[in-house]
Specification:
The protein is an alpha/beta fold. It contains 14 helices and twelve strands. The termini are far apart. Bound molecules: pyridoxal-5'-phosphate.
Amino acid sequence: MPDPAEVRSRTAILTRGFEPRLSLGSARPAVFRSSTYVFESPEEAEHAFAVVHGHAAAEPNERAALIYSRISHPNAEILEDHLVPLEPGATDALAFNSGMAAIMTAFFTFARPASTIVYTMPLYGGTTALIHTFLEPCGVRGIPVTAGDTKGIAEAIRAAEDPCIVLIETPANPTMIMTDIRSAAEAAHRHPSKPLVMVDNTFLGPVFQHPLKLGADLVLYSATKYLSGFSDLVAGAAISNDPAPIQRMRSRRTMFGNILQPDECWMLDGRLPTVGLRMNRQSKNAQRIAERLARGASVARVIYPSLLDDPEQRRIYSEQCDYPGGIFSLDFHAGKPAAFEFLRRLRIAKNAVSLGGVETLACHPRSTTHSGDSPAELDRAGVTEGLVRVSVGIEDWRDLLADFEQALQPE
Ligand SMILES: *Cc1c(COP(=O)(O)O)cnc(C)c1O
């Protein structure tokens, strides 16, 4: 086998982390659904538990023994070994049974009472709810900062009292506002409390945006979206360039019981070699469609990273992202009735929440994905009544463009 350190990510994902010898020689991984694993001897069992509890050090190059599938199992290990080369700079990864499970486990590993969490606004709705419903009652004060406000975020971090976490979601959902990861990470690393910098990289990662290279400590994913890519499974991931935070999260995952199950690990693992192909096609499709709609459409503003006009937003985009990605939004001047009419008229794109699948989906965030946020929060974040979010799939872009154009035509 080639040394994984010497090959590029697209090769590594097909050559590292899976030994056919351990699966009766099968070329692709088998599914190991066992809940428990047999030891060679009682001494081996004793040593395995001592290593898991941190009472004994593992031998150099020793893999943690398999014990029980809530702790880990072969399909999680194979998947985690394949997530690492996808994220430039990464050394360690963990699989979770949803994106929310990854975010929740990160929060409950690194938050401490009487500390603060600085986060960009808007965040994914479930994450905002988690901060308000669980972190704040546990004594962790939330400090929201408007996405894209580079100076404001650095200042909020500097002034924060004992920050434990800085959480950035960029581009913001569904307004596509970019936040400067490097600048926030520098501010965080200067703070004496050394807050952990987490980036929810679901929208542009792992192909077009690389937070660990920009100073982030932990990258979080809803693997339900681009990583899995077919809108048929729910999963999450946490990836770092430091084994220590991953090790701490691993022990929490064992307590919480939110590891991804073997079948889902196997399915997701099989999707990873094509995530770059799919995301490249989705980004090319979205760019062709968004730029043409922006030229032609007078009824709605098209929001897309390659169409940003604010100079600071353009700077962040050009320094931080390789390509604009597969998601754009339309902001209808005539508000909700126009947005709903557009959704009703679509023939190829389906009206559904979620994103990142091979099929094109469209939704009205204010009445669906973001309906849990207060109207004041939504207004501040730019989630208007007229906003429709589109996740572009891998269909032929000309058919999609024609579908959007006919849906934009007034009767
Ligand atoms: C979907 C999503 C999540 C939550 O992930 P689940 O897999 O649904 O739990 C978190 N963050 C972002 C940006 C998302 O799009």
